[in-house]
Amino acid sequence: MSGYNSLLTLSGSEIWGYRLSQLVGSGSYGAVYRASSGSDTIAVKISCEEQDLAIEALTLQLFYYRNAVPKFHFCNKYGPYHTIGMELLSHDMDSIWQKVDWMAFERPTLIKFIYQALTCLEAVHALKIVHRDVKLSNFAITQPRTPGNQVSVRILDFGLSHVYADADGNLRDDSRSFDFSKMKYAAYDASLGCDPMPKDDICQLGYAVMYAAGFDFAQQLKLPADDLSNWKGELIRDPANNLPLSVKFMLPFFELVADLNDVVPIKYDLLKQRIQECLPEVDATCDSILSEENGKLTLT
Ligand SMILES: Nc1ncnc2c1ncn2[C@@H]1O[C@H](COP(=O)(O)OP(=O)(O)OP(=O)(O)O)[C@@H](O)[C@H]1O
């Protein structure tokens, strides 16, 4: 069995006193299991990528008291694998999206999601960390709280993240030398070969919202590299005429995203204000509600 496949068959194993009971998710590098010890239930991420997991563990620890990421429990080695124990979230946004009618979230859901996702990114950027892997499946919601099933958005997966500047603001290189221009869903500047910076996380959040709104982003990603990059460039040059129809109502937000650069500090409050302006009848600051009926999930 290949290294990666063996990551997917660890149900029943015991790690640091937690028994892995169910595979709840997997990505290119890791598998994530629900794990229990007595009444305590957490998520355990397992990967062969030592450095990425070490960076992720360090990052999660920095955010323990901020409600932006799953709370960190431990990191440890398990045979050939590296593991992180963390708060168990309920569903990632991509798997909820796959179950909604027409594979398109409704406007109120989109507005609340983007507001909370931006709040997560604000917390990440405040520590001079750039995430660099912003996509729908890297956001998840907390376990529903009672009464009312309220849930909040958290950002996941810091394997590609990087502390881009020191306390004095001097830029720091990443020795891992990733080539983000090859990443299909990279922001426009990164697709041209620039190092991804916080504004690019926000630009990628914009792509994630287009996808969540039902725009066929997967088809767009199949374009030849130059055409894809041109499309991303046009979105920034003239969002009013190039935004997909399903997110045109979010033009006030996308216009501000198009104006972001790496020099002027990002005004998160203004971005949030713009998000609220896109749909004034919905309070973007309210938590979302998760309901489940006959196996069908609804996030409102
Ligand atoms: N704390 C958690 N609680 C519940 N599910 C989680 C948690 N962390 C991750 N998951 C699930 O596991 C999936 C994969 O996790 P993650 O993105 O961290 O793995 P990865 O291998 O680094 O993925 P990628 O391919 O994006 O690099 C997520 O999309 C989500 O469904």
Summarize the structure in short:
The chain has helices at 3-7, 50-62, 93-99, 107-126, 188-191, 198-212, 217-220, 225-237, 239-242, 251-259, 268-278, and strands at residues 14-15, 18-26, 30-37, 40-47, 72-78, 81-87, 91-92, 129-130, 139-141, 150-151, 153-155, 162-163, 288-293, 296-299. With 300 residues, it is of the alpha+beta class.
Structure description:
The chain is of the alpha+beta class. It folds into two domains: 3-86, Phosphorylase Kinase, domain 1; 93-299, Transferase(Phosphotransferase) domain 1 (Transferase(Phosphotransferase), domain 1), CATH 1.10.510. The protein is 35% helix and 22% strand. It has helices spanning 3-7, 50-62, 93-99, 107-126, 188-191, 198-212, 217-220, 225-237, 239-242, 251-259, 268-278, and strands spanning 14-15, 18-26, 30-37, 40-47, 72-78, 81-87, 91-92, 129-130, 139-141, 150-151, 153-155, 162-163, 288-293, 296-299. It has a six-stranded antiparallel sheet with strand order 1-2-3-4-6-5, with helices on one face. A three-stranded antiparallel sheet has the order 7-9-11. A three-stranded antiparallel sheet has the order 10-13-14. A hairpin with a 2-residue loop joins β5 (72-78) and β6. α4 packs antiparallel against α6 and α10 (251-259) runs antiparallel to α11 (268-278). The radius of gyration is 19 Å and the shape is globular. The mean pLDDT is 93. Residues 24-30, 32, 43, 45, 70, 86-89, 92, 133, 137-138, 140, 156-157, 159 line the site of adenosine-5'-triphosphate.
